[in-house]
Amino acid sequence: MKRSRKLTTLALGMLSATLAFAQATPPWSKGANDPAPEKGYAFHVSDIDNIPDIHGNPCDAKLVIFIGGNQFFVLPQLIAAFEEQHPELKGHIFYETLPPGILRKQIAANDAITLGNLTIQVKPDVYEAGARVLKQMEQANQVKGIIQYATNNLEIMIPAANPKNIQSLKDMGRADVALSMPNPAWESVANQIGDSLRKAGGDSLYQAVYQDKVKNGKTVLTEIHHRQTPMRIMSGQADAGVTWASEVRFQESIGNPIKGIVIPADFNTTGTYAGGVMVDAPHPNAAAQWLAFLKSDQAQSIYHQFGFRSIPTASK
Known about the structure:
By secondary structure, this protein is of the alpha/beta class. The protein has two domains: 54-150 and 273-315, Periplasmic binding protein-like II (D-Maltodextrin-Binding Protein, domain 2, 3-Layer(aba) Sandwich); 154-262, Periplasmic binding protein-like II (D-Maltodextrin-Binding Protein, domain 2, 3-Layer(aba) Sandwich). The protein is built from nine helices and 13 strands. The strands form four sheets. Strands 1-3-2-6-13-7 form a six-stranded mixed β-sheet, with helices on both faces. The longest helix has 28 residues, at 189-216. Residues 1-21 have low confidence and may be disordered.
């Protein structure tokens, strides 16, 4: 009994040390994602007062970007490089990195969103998400001047120790594997994941992951997968989740105990990132400058650091 208690104490101590070293809760940027020059009094309480996907100061903004959340870790470098080229915009860029579907709901709600007791209303100049979504918005006369600027593949995110010995997408259907998966209702990556699950195991694998295991609680859907999936894996609530490969690279880069399982090309599904100027953008010139910058060599090199790839020449 004493030996068991000692081992338990040791295990808890090791876990505490790991979590202390890891950045278990967002924002993982340590303030780097806030482009506002005047930050005032910095007040942050983990898990209580913590808004990691709203960046900067909307007051007096000269460029407002609504961008799909899985790019949040690329923005600090992109914003800094863009501001060097356009110093007149320095300190006047505001952006949100919520899931694409949530951002569209905000746009539909007269550009307003409420988080807890905070309501903000700001009209976007740029919207960025998957190419298919941008095409739909263009057809609905919501955006114009669409460009494609990057691609990404899927990867299975798991704990670094991989205690469940997960090796492939087929393991997602195992009854003993707890999953954290994007919600198809507003996270468009769920569409690509669905395609990959069907490629790897047919409709039965898709049904096991997104229907059967949702019903029995072994798959928990996310509201913000780029935050919740790594947090659930690190806390032990989930054994795995399918994310973009770039999200795994980011978690590894900040020392979190997470790694990825590469999905073979035959089963993978590539996502294409696109952006457009909102038809009613308050700052259309700055919006066009931002989109042009995304295709520049400088911006592309930043994307490459996290595993994004450039658009093939024939597709540009």
